[in-house]
Amino acid sequence: MPKWGKYRSVISMGIIFTVTIVLGMFLSLSFMDMGYQAFEDPESLWIPVMYIILILIFSGVILFLAKKKKLGFIQGLVLFTTGMALMYVFIIPYDYLLGMMFTQSYIYRHYDALSYLLLFMCIGTAGILTYILYKYPEWYVVDTIGIIVGAGICAILGISLGILPLFLLMIALAIYDAISVYKTKHMIDLADAVIEKRLPVVMVVPKSRNYSFRNQKSLKGTLKSKGKREAMFMGLGDIVFPGSLVISAMTFLGDQVVIQGQTYWEPTMASFGVAITTLIGALVGYSILMRYVMKGRPQAGLPLLNSGAILGFAVGYFLIFQDFSLGIF
Predict the structure, then answer these.
(1) What is the distance between the alpha carbons of residues 195 and 164, in angstroms, rounded to a whole number?
(2) Does residue 135 fall inside a structural domain?
């Protein structure tokens, strides 16, 4: 196989990884202005504890439903949450579009009607895309929607979690990911369930031009038979959590502004610089991860991806702010 062909899927997945995070960085600016922060106190250390408990419960429910052959429930749950995420993300471009179409005085006089129109446009677009995903879950449909949803989740988590809580969450999830892939191996069962229903919680990069995700065979069956893998898969969480640290760095290392009793964080050149080094660190972790992935065995992504992002953050913070506090003291 030509050298480009050998690394094409790796480079393509790296592009998806980067595009999702960069789009999340742009979305986070508007999400902060619109008050999309999920938690009132982003520095609370109870947040990562709560997330870990929810992830364990969610994983247990999915495994239970998969073993009971109730994959339709899994599909319905994921499609519903996907539609909700799409609806929130599309508020931003549609809000800008309406702002360009109408004058400020017209918007003020017809605010309620335009608000309903905005809501209808967001629900309609989310509904159409979710229906397309349900009826025609080809790899490029799954990837496109996965990028949009992943960017939205990155943005919301990034502006909702401070540096220290996010560090703790990323470390805990990296340990959980390693145990679930290498020890209990239940992450492979989870991946098999979502791949079977063609859900946008995995990103897919084909290794051949005639590949069809709709005809994808069981991942576990392919591994047991040691057959040729037709595509590369990456869980959306492998992008979301290092991406969240990129956005958290850009947000919470910036300037804090209080307007009418509401606290906002405005990115600065310094915070943006640390965000970029965090992204570079995550990409270094990604390149190391791919060396193992290309050997053909399933790999836990978060240990390397999260470690790379955290180290990239630490290096960038020291170089730019000239101290070892990492913004958490």
Answers:
(1) 33
(2) no
- Going by the DSSP 8-state scheme, the letter that residue 214 receives in this structure is G
**Look-up: residue for tokens 């938690």?**
39
| H/E stretch holding 157 | helix 139-160
Enclosing domain of residue 269: 3-70+145-320
CA distance 144 to 203: 9
Burial class (CB in 10 A: 0-12, 13-18, 19+), 197: middle
Q: Give the phi and the psi of residue 226 in degrees, each rounded to 5.
A: 55, 35
| Cβ count within 10 A of residue 41 | 12
In this structure, are residues 75 and 199 in contact, taking their beta carbons and an 8 Å threshold?
A: yes
Residue 64 CB neighbours (<10 A): 11
Residue 238 lies in a domain: yes
Determine, yes or no, domain membership for 314.
Answer: yes
* This prediction's pTM: 0.90
In a domain, 325, yes or no: no
CA angle (285 as vertex; 280, 288 as ends), nearest 5:
130
Domain count, the chain: 1
Secondary structure of residue 101 in the 3-state scheme: helix
Tens of pLDDT, residue by residue over 220-279, are 655 555 556 778 888 899 999 999 999 999 999 998 887 766 777 889 999 999 999 999
Q: What are the angstrom distances between the C-alpha of 47 and each of 50, 137, 163, 167, 253?
A: 5, 34, 12, 11, 19
CB of 169 closer than 8 Å to CB of 48: yes
**3-class secondary structure per residue, 9-76:** HHHHHHHHHHHHHHHHHHHHHHHHHCCCCCCCCCCCCHHHHHHHHHHHHHHHHHHHHHHCCCHHHHHH
> Helix, strand, coil % (nearest 5) of the chain?
75, 5, 20
Instruction: For residue 82, give every residue at least 6 positions away whose Cβ sits within 8 Å of its Cβ, in sequence order, or none.
Output: 130, 133, 145, 149, 199, 200
